[in-house]
Design goal:
A: 274 residues, mainly alpha, two-stranded antiparallel sheet, 12 helices, 1% strand, B: 285 residues, 75% helix, 0% strand
């Protein structure tokens, strides 16, 4: 009898152990960064003894944090808006019409998601340098569209499929043109999908690193790239000031995550499987 | 009428086609062309030949595969039973999913940066291990293989788990009930019914995880020994492009990266096609 109950409980115990271990590590990493950024001389012991705000002052003097945050948000918002303008019509066409080469087109749109960013990022960065887009906000917006648009198409398609075609036919019968149907019927009905795609992409683009890193420079870099450069050149500044910048980044992305979780579920944050 | 419809569709698809052509196909083709061009502007295979004849460069392939393959296998291997266990929902599901999505949201830079302190010699993890008497002196988790692997795994696991969770919960529960009614044990039901149905999901989760792990860059630089044993292929490409300014050779490395990755993905998809494929196995739910 006892053996049976252990066998039954084993999966649950294993599950709890793995999840608890994972959460403990994540919390540990975050708390260490936060405590490090507000303390001094924490070389041993469970908790730091002296607390200070000087690392934040240091990081603020070291970087123009206002600009970093502004660039981060401008890039993210621009990517969401431009991305939606490209992805929505495409998702609509793919969800609604049958045409030759549709499967090919769909795989072409999804290809950027399975090729590593470094592989197409390096030629893309070379082009940006040639066109003098590198180091500019516009260049950063453009390169980050590459992974955002396919993701948006994927998120939007099922939402559009859900909206029945009869409302569109009714509108057409009543004499509405294509533009009116889009504006008055389709956009309102697919608003949840647009919202989901927009929010998910916003959260994603705040943390996007690889492509931005290849072309962003000078003042026009995002906060995550500045964070990496600081952590990389660790000897150049006190490590706690790197942690201070990390906390600023952490607060921004956590705020966006918490706001987004009011509308979307965590499983939607990853590639959605059919 | 059908002509008008067709042109409407083409018009709707136009921005996206233009986007993928200009920002993905063209750069990729340009990279391929550049990689086949020598310093004098003529056609050459020299960029590839030089990569494959330099042991330090070739080693980056094995270094990267040595990190990406085991970590992806482990992440997906852990995610399958856990997603299976959670398929009908469990207590605290929301909070668990929240903590899983946090590292994905934070991105690899912050996780790697935080690991340096948390898993460092004086960090909490080593303090805990020593207090429990499991080790007598601090374990080195950073600036080595373990550091890079842990960081990549911490990012990959939630991805695989959340992907598979969405997939498993879409499998028709009646299939499981039918199997049990016919006398199959839980174990048999899992291996004979659910696992084959999960294979397509597992294959995609594996591929996407592998893509992320294979292009590992920040974790290798921050948590490994980027000039030695953890010199990954993305780093080799980056250095060639932005430190040596040899864009021809850098493009060749980028193309090799893409080729290896597509090979692994092709192998995974072949494995999937070799397994049982039934019609409409996942209910629309």
């Amino acid at each position: 009898m006892i053996a049976v109950s252990i066998e039954r409980r084993l999966p649950r115990i294993l599950f709890a152990a793995v999840i608890a271990g994972y959460i403990a590590i994540v919390l540990g990493i975050i708390l260490t960064v936060v405590l490090n950024s507000v303390s001094k001389g924490w070389y041993s012991g469970v908790l730091p003894r002296t607390f200070t705000a000087e690392w934040y002052k240091y990081a603020a003097a070291d970087h123009d944090i206002g600009t970093l945050i502004a660039v981060t948000f401008v890039v993210a918002l621009a990517d969401v808006l431009v991305g939606l303008l490209i992805a929505f019509p495409a998702a609509y066409a793919l969800a609604r019409s049958e045409f030759r080469g549709k499967a090919f087109l769909l795989s072409l749109f999804l290809l950027p998601m399975i090729v590593p960013p470094m592989a197409y990022g390096i030629p893309l960065a070379m082009l940006c340098y040639k066109l003098r887009l590198a180091g500019k906000v516009a260049g950063t917006v453009i390169v980050n569209l590459v992974p955002i648009v396919p993701f948006m198409i994927l998120v939007l398609m099922p939402f559009i499929e859900q909206v029945g075609t009869n409302l569109e036919s009714a509108a057409k019968m009543l004499g509405a043109g294509r533009a009116t149907i889009f504006r008055k019927v389709l956009i309102p009905l697919t608003a949840p999908g647009i919202l989901t795609a927009g929010i998910l992409s916003l959260v994603k683009s705040i943390s996007m690193f690889d492509l931005t890193y290849l072309i962003a420079g000078g003042r026009n870099q995002t906060i995550v790239v500045a964070l990496f450069s600081d952590a990389y050149a660790a000897g150049a500044r006190p490590p706690q000031s790197v942690d201070a910048l990390a906390v600023v980044y952490f607060l921004i992305s956590m705020t966006c995550l918490c706001i987004s979780l009011r509308t979307v579920s965590p499983t939607q944050m990853v590639f959605k499987l059919k | 009428m059908s002509g008008a419809r067709g042109s409407g569709t083409a018009l709707l698809l136009f921005p996206a086609i233009l986007f993928v052509a200009l920002l993905f196909v063209y750069p990729f083709g340009y990279g391929l062309f550049t990689s086949l061009t020598g310093a004098d502007g003529g056609f050459t295979l020299g960029n590839y030949a030089r990569f494959f004849s330099t042991p330090r460069e070739v080693r980056t392939i094995w270094t990267t595969l040595g990190i990406a393959l085991p970590v992806t296998l482990l992440a997906v291997g852990l995610a399958v039973p856990l997603a299976y266990h959670m398929r009908r929902g469990i207590a605290g599901e929301r909070i668990i999913s929240f903590f899983l999505i946090v590292p994905v949201t934070l991105g690899t830079v912050l996780v790697s940066e935080g690991m340096l302190s948390f898993m460092g010699p004086n960090g909490w993890l080593n303090q805990l291990l020593m207090a429990l008497g499991l080790v007598s002196k601090p374990v080195q988790f950073t600036h080595n293989y373990a550091g890079v692997a842990i960081s990549v795994g911490l990012q990959g696991f939630p991805y695989a788990f959340l992907m598979l969770l969405g997939y498993v919960s879409g499998i028709d529960p009646d299939l499981e009930k039918a199997s049990q009614m016919l006398g199959a044990t839980k174990w048999q039901t899992f291996w004979k019914i659910l696992f084959p149905l999960m294979v397509p999901g597992i294959a995609i989760a594996f591929c996407l995880n592998f893509v992320m792990a294979f292009s590992v860059y920040p974790s290798a630089v921050l948590l490994g020994q980027p000039s030695g044993p953890q010199r990954v292929i993305a780093l080799a490409a980056y250095q060639m492009a932005f430190e040596k300014f040899n864009f021809n050779a850098a493009s060749a490395i980028a193309m090799i990266m893409a080729a290896i990755e597509l090979l692994v993905i092709a192998a995974v998809l072949a494995w999937r096609n070799g397994m049982y494929r039934g019609a409409s196995i996942v209910g629309k739910g």
